[in-house]
Amino acid sequence: MNRFAWQCLRTIAVFAIIGLVTGLIWGAGNGLMAFLGLLSLWLFAHLWQIGQLIAWLERPKPSTIPTGVGVWQQVFNTLMLQAKSRKRRKQKITLALQRFYHASEVMPDGVMILNQEGRIEWMNSVAREHFMLQTDDVGGILANLVRQPEFHQFMANDAADALHELKLALPTRKGLPRTVIIKRTPFDKHMQLLVSQDITPMEKLNQTRSDFIANVSHELRTPLTVINGFVETMQDLPNLPADKREQFLALMKKDSDRMLTLLDDLLTLSRLENSDPSNKLQPINLSALVEQLSQEGITLSAGKQSFSTDIAANLWIQGVQLDLYNALSNLVFNAVRYNHEGGHIDIRLHTDDHITARFSVSDNGPGIAAEHIPRLTERFYRVDAGRSRASGGTGLGLAITKHALAEHGSRLEVESTVGKGSEFAAEFDLISKPQAVSLSGSDAPTELSTA
Ligand code: ADP
């Protein structure tokens, strides 16, 4: 028999003794009345506590738990402890759930839970974005919300043993489609976990890489084919007249020079893309460099174009001499190479505030149509491929300029009108003339190596 039953028996026994004593003193009838009266009171007290318990169980908050008497005090204390531990457990679960939601929101991948019928039970915001869904699409059948037939095929396969991964081009709100890899994993008997990963940047990189390899191969193939043709001719005709032989050798030299220039430009570009310039920076006399470039432009032009220059003296910047030379010389040499005979080229370097300086090269050459301008700094992008190749261009010049200018915290500005000419310019932050250089009196820039 348990403790509660013993307590009840004890209480009833006490009531019986009281009834007996009362009966002995005031007669049997009064004794019975006393016994039944006490029993009723006792039962009423228990019923009242049960009522309290039922009322509390409807809203079981630890703060509103009733205080009982006797056995009920024990009952209410036990319930209180249980309610408190339930509350603690609930808080822990809520916290864990919140952490899970926060973690899933910062995840770079889309995560979605589908039930047995393929209905969305839950998804994070990345999944919503990948599949272009709304919050109220939760509960909908995913296959009805995504149109691509490949996706339907993928979802129709048995997730346990069929194809688990799908590469899919999904439309975006911005217009350009995105490529995602979708993985499906069954869990918890009939549930499925769908993870989507956006691989568009990787795809673009791969495309850029293969385009680059195709471009380099194409650029090398043309001169190599020419050289190969001449070698075969000379092998077939050992008694070729000396003048023809000389002519062939000169053409072969021209094409091998072209390949060497291309390789040099490729190496320069790769160095610029991969190196950290911060430890190579040194004071550079920009005015002296621009003077030197003007002279080299005039030499390259060989009198075919006229030049005007306006170069402010003693402007210094922090930079990498060779890279800056590569950046600016491409602009000067392009102005010469693309301008017609009798054209004019204007080279300027000026400052208004002694804080920044602007370098510009203008020509009155053929100009560039607006649609080409944003693409000029792409590798191997040429407006007029024939003219570029004929003048020894590799198609990498402005790509090199862009990277080298970025290394100097600057960017290329292009303005051009077809039939009127072009202006290529860049701005640089000036520094004051370094002490050591001004004491020695030498403003000459570090010797250039343009090989
Ligand atoms: P390239 O070796 O072909 O000159 P660049 O990257 O230096 O390569 O230039 C890219 C293209 O921009 C050139 O092919 C040419 O069509 C165009 N371009 C560059 N500078 C000028 C200019 N001053 N006038 C007209 N077109 C130019």
What features would you describe in this structure?
Pfam families: HATPase_c (PF02518), HisKA (PF00512), PhoR (PF11808). Keywords: ATP-binding, Cell membrane, Kinase, Membrane, Nucleotide-binding, Phosphate transport, Phosphoprotein, Transferase, Transmembrane, Transmembrane helix, Transport, Two-component regulatory system. The protein is built from 13 helices and 12 strands. By secondary structure, it is an alpha+beta fold. 52% of the residues lie in helices and 17% in strands. Mean pLDDT is 90; it is low at 438-451. The protein has helices at 3-26, 28-58, 71-106, 125-130, 142-145, 149-156, 200-236, 242-274, 286-301, 321-338, 385-390, 397-407, 435-440; strands at residues 110-114, 120-123, 165-170, 178-187, 191-198, 282-285, 306-311, 316-319, 344-350, 356-363, 413-417, 421-431. The strands form 2 sheets. Strands 6, 7, 8, 9, 10, 11 and 12 form a 7-stranded mixed beta sheet that branches. The protein has 4 domains: 3-101, no CATH class; 107-198, PAS domain (Beta-Lactamase); 204-273, Helix Hairpins; 276-431, Heat Shock Protein 90 (2-Layer Sandwich), CATH 3.30.565. The radius of gyration is 44 Å and the shape is elongated. The structure holds adenosine-5'-diphosphate. The site of adenosine-5'-diphosphate has 22 residues, from helix 10 and helix 12.
